[in-house]
Amino acid sequence: MTGMELCTAKKLEQNPIVIVFDDGYYGTLRAFGPELKSFELAGWDYVSVGKALGCDGSSASTPLEFRDSLRSALESKLPYLIDARITGSPSPLLHRLSELISKKIGENPT
Does the residue 110 lie in any domain? Predict the structure, then answer.
């Protein structure tokens, strides 16, 4: 998804709930190159982007805020974007996958 689908949802009078798991960087890519700064995002305001596309939205940084955002989303008649701001390490699965790929690249550098 690029986000522009929200315009289509509004045009078709649909009201999906879109949750952006916002970790502040391209987390999947960063797992493969944690030292690279190119994966860090500039702190986008996803709720404002959603509103510019005609949607409702809110941010959530805690489980309580997420619950409140989800309640608002369920009551909305418009597409609703929740910016779920998350912190922490990548999942164990993603960490293991990046280790396996790094190992393979090291074995076959061409």
Answer: no
